[in-house]
Amino acid sequence: MSKRRRETGAKTSNRTARGALQSHWQQHLKIASDSFKRLLQQPSASLMTIAVIGIALLLPSTLFVSMSNLNALSDSINGASKVTLYLHEEHTEGEALKISEQLLQREDVTTTEYISPAQAAEQFSVYSGLGDVIDALDENPLPGAIIVTPASIDADATQALATELAQLSIVDSMQLDLQWVERLQRFLQLVQRASTGLMLILALAVLFIVGNTIRLAIEGRRAEIVVVKLVGGTNSYVARPFLYAGAYYGLAGSILACILLAILMWAISGPARALLALYDSDFQLRTLGLSSTVFLLLIGTGLGWLGALISVRQHLSNIEP
Amino acid sequence: MIKFDNVSKRYPGGHQALSQVDFELADGEMAFLTGRSGAGKSTLLKLIMLMETTSQGQIFVNGKNLSRMPKHRIPFYRRRIGVVFQDHQLLFDRNVFENVALPLQIEGYPKHEADRRVRAALDKVGLLKKEKMLPITLSGGEQQRIGIARAVVNRPQILLADEPTGNLDPELAAEIMKLFEQFNQVGVSMLIASHDLSLITRLQHRILTLDTGRLILDAHHTAATAQPVGGK
After folding, report:
1. pTM for the whole thing?
2. ipTM metric
3. Distance CA A58, CA A256 (A)
4. A-B C-beta contacts closer than 8 Å
5. First vs last C-alpha separation in chain B
6. Who has the most CB within 10 Å: A39, A85, A113, A152?
7. Are B212 and B39 in contact (CB under 8 A)?
8. Are the C-beta atoms of B102 and B122 separated by less than 8 Å?
């Protein structure tokens, strides 16, 4: 029998590390572009998957934008909170005006307004429609008041200011109406918690959607996988195109979500502006923003990749030649 | 190169495909494996490829015990063995060139070197001018030659073939066999399963004959020097 030595063995192992690294990237690039082309080859199936992922990602992103708008809105409302200082009955109008002016010098106070007992009675009868009741009394029971607008929008700072002002000798009692702001904030916290839960559930949904799509893709390419494994393809080599496909699905889905969200924001921006104008607010509607958009794209891509990985782990090792 | 040591294979369900097979194929040797269909030819090749595992006995390839090979090493082991299948096992969504390039792609060869090797392999099997065509548009003989080019493109030490001439007319079959002999002449060890006795007896190589899973004949060159295995 022929026992001639092969002279090719040495050459095979003679590839340099640099060449190997270069070809590693070449290989990745090729697989990346191949799996992209494969998505384009089945546009309708790919689009269905991308649409479902897009909608699944749209919901949490809409919630996120709504939350960030409501938070900003609640901050600006908080800024509108005022401290009302009710004065002792025996004060004179001159004293009150002087105090009012002194308060205006403070850095943490934006505006002050003095309301005399007579003005208070007038306002009461105008706004309450109970003017007759006041007239029926011998004496005007309403005290004078100074209304202070704090400079800070922070609830704690406002509270501290109000407490300090209540110590003034001229002040009988102080009223700070923060309760409803606090209620709003608690409500927002509740919504935030609920939407975080919803986000997790929808992230899970994206994993399942991508996982199932990749499972079908693996089934469709069973024969090819067998051939690749027969000629020495490792599990990770076989898995790679599917992982790329998953990441593409996730990326395309999150881009779709961004587009849909932009359309949605555009659609509601008109009515929202009209509504805010009624409240004399110069509040600007917030959009997703650059960093959040990038975050959404990364999360979408990551979820797609992870979904594919789970699917590949489950199904690929079962396919053996 | 390949050594079977008392190898038996029983499939789940009880079918005894191979019983106590013993033989050794030297480095650079070419041998045929024959027998009626169902005699165990394919099973024997599958055992070497680790597509199946032995129920009993041991197989050594290049000195390595296959039953001790960890699962993650199997792909790397397979890269050293070229296989030609009766049903070609080509990828029909890729052209001739890409089919042949597959093993090199898997091994991560740099593109220019891979291209060179693919062209050399295609040249060898006479398909260089058809590299851009899809396998489905080619004849059975040409498809088989794509399979052969793919099997030899990464210069394996061992080439296995399972009924490589099964669906071909005698002329084409002889041509394919001639191609195999050429590979053998540059030092590749070969084991070719074929039931085409008239063809393989003409070729003057070692012939291993299987019958219902037993190796009944290990004949060198011609029937005249045939010796029954273990027959005393």
Report:
1. 0.72
2. 0.85
3. 8
4. 87
5. 27
6. A85
7. yes
8. no
